[in-house]
Design a protein that fits this description.
The protein is mainly α and 221 residues long. 78% of the residues lie in helices and 0% in strands.
Length: 221
């Protein structure tokens, strides 16, 4: 789709906006510019795992296209795993710049790592069940449970405990307090990274379909 290809235009624009147009935050200074990459990859990691959970539900409730639902769930989780790793990396860089240490066992840092481990376990489970006849069903149930668990790890638990996370700048009293240029840059980056995920996810699904067709032709021979 042409929409996804717009990422090749939007991504350079967002990078320029992040480093040259948006002003630095009053407290964090230029270190705040990592916000325009950390928040979007964190957002996409959540979106990707929701998609994998939805595909898993469709796999279980529908008899049609089950093989396709299976690899679509896997591909979204695999893509989400990459974005989760990027979330941890960018978050650690932000922690170093803001708090003087790459890792502080902050509730938000810990929760995203736990989420990452959950999906590492999924990828390991899926790989280990390669010869199992019900691999798709077992993996789908795991992803659905993981999708249900994810909001508690990402949105609830980090807000229950005191955190070093700079909510006072970004989300004080439930409202976003950013200058107009910063707000536009942040939301533009979120849209761009979402499109990037969609583009990558679409390519992964096309590759999976071609692999299945190649296997079917091989067995026909």
């Amino acid at each position: 789709m042409i929409l996804y290809r717009l990422v090749f235009i939007f991504m350079p624009a967002v990078i320029c906006m992040a480093f040259m147009w948006a002003p630095p935050a009053a407290i964090l200074g230029d270190a705040s510019r990592i916000l325009y990459f950390h928040v979007p990859v964190a957002w996409v990691s959540v979106v990707a795992f929701i998609v994998s959970g939805i595909q898993s539900i469709l796999f279980l409730v529908s008899e049609n296209k089950r093989k396709e639902r299976e690899f679509m769930a896997y591909n979204s989780a695999a893509a989400g795993m990459v974005f989760t790793i990027l979330t941890v990396i960018t978050g650690s860089i932000w922690a170093k710049l803001s708090w003087g240490s790459y890792w502080n066992w902050d509730p938000r840092e810990t929760s995203i790592v736990v989420l990452m481990l959950i999906y590492i376990a999924y990828l390991s489970l899926y790989s280990s069940l390669k010869e199992h006849p019900n691999r798709g069903g077992i993996s789908a149930v795991y992803l659905i449970i993981a999708m249900i668990t994810m909001p508690f790890l990402v949105f609830i638990i980090p807000r229950v405990y005191l955190s070093l996370h700079p909510d006072t700048i970004i989300n004080r009293e439930g409202k976003i307090h950013l200058e107009a240029a910063m707000r536009i840059t942040l939301f533009s980056s979120i849209v761009t990274f979402t499109l990037l995920y969609g583009y990558i996810y679409r390519l992964m699904n096309r590759i999976s379909r071609l692999e299945i067709k190649a296997e079917e032709k091989h067995y026909d021979i």
